[in-house]
Specification:
The chain has 7 helices and 15 strands. It has 291 residues and is α+β, with helices and mostly antiparallel strands.
């Protein structure tokens, strides 16, 4: 493993001679534009591991994506190699079905301190709530990013990441994907504490979410990649291209159901993902196996 391989993977060509905010912002952005959030290993007979060498091989050398335990764990290694002061943090993702935060630490994020100022980094939430740049750890401050206006709120015992709702505009009104539509004016994303964690803390959650029948990740295959103008998403067999129009407070959604023969082609051309084993998409309009 080496940084040059990683930098080639994300298309980073800048200077990295000192661990400053400018460098962190650029690497953070390039990561989310290059390495997808995806859970395909669960649906093609593989396993998601948290051994660093396995994660590096999958995301960098095999040009796959991964979920937060992989993407953010890899990014923490990058921070270490570049000399940043950082800690791993655990968070609980907001669950719309119960209108509350999850009970488990279902998400891994990082706190980075630069010149005594703390920031939150997260390169693997995906879709509408993916931050492009580190967030200042300041309570109540509006922080405008391409995906919207984000805020970190200090609730005393924990912090909450939230963002402002954007109105969806559907180019295909007959195909509205609930996962891509905000249900609240203020969208809670996840809550977290500042308790430092190590990688071992997440091992049991990494395993459980791959096998639990109630886990979102076993119920649906998904892939999301940010683009310079928005993001792409594949949920089951529904492919969406989303364009941000921040000046109007709107996200434009262009969605369609992929035909059987299009699925693997879309993964290669739109997400730069090439699966090596048989893949069974799961979720909306999904029932067949592809090779």
């Amino acid at each position: 493993m080496n940084l040059q391989e990683y930098f080639r993977r994300i298309g980073f060509h800048g200077s990295y001679d000192k661990p400053d905010l400018l460098t962190l912002r650029e690497i953070h952005k390039q990561h989310i534009l290059s390495i997808p959030f995806e859970n395909f290993s669960i649906h093609c007979g593989e396993r998601n591991h948290m051994e660093l060498e396995a994660v590096f091989n999958k995301l960098v050398r095999c040009k796959r994506g991964g979920w937060c335990y992989e993407n953010n764990f890899l990014f923490s290694w990058v921070l270490k190699e570049l000399g940043y002061e950082y800690t791993l943090l655990s968070s609980k993702v907001f669950n719309n079905s119960i209108d509350d935060f999850a009970l488990m630490d279902t998400h891994l994020i990082m706190k980075v301190v630069i010149d005594e100022e703390p920031f939150i980094c997260d390169v693997s939430y995906g879709m509408m709530s993916q931050v492009w740049y580190p967030l200042e750890l300041i309570s109540g401050k509006d922080q405008t990013q391409p995906a919207g206006v984000f805020r970190l709120m200090d609730k005393g015992e924990f912090w909450v990441l939230e963002r402002d709702r954007r109105q969806p505009r559907f180019l295909n009104p007959d195909l509205q994907t609930p996962s891509l539509v905000d249900k609240k004016d203020i969208v809670p994303v996840y809550c977290f504490t500042l308790t430092p964690r190590n990688g071992d803390h997440f091992l049991k959650f990494n395993e459980k979410l791959q096998v639990d029948a109630n886990s979102l990740y076993t119920k649906m295959s998904m892939c999301s990649l940010q683009t310079p103008t928005g993001f792409r998403a594949l949920l089951g067999q529904i492919y969406s291209e989303v364009t941000f129009i921040p000046e109007e407070g709107v996200n434009v959604l262009d969605s369609r159901i992929l035909l059987d023969h299009e699925l693997l082609q879309i993964l290669r051309e739109k997400f730069n993902v090439q699966l090596r084993g048989p893949f069974t998409p799961k979720g909306a309009k999904s029932s067949k196996k592809y090779f």
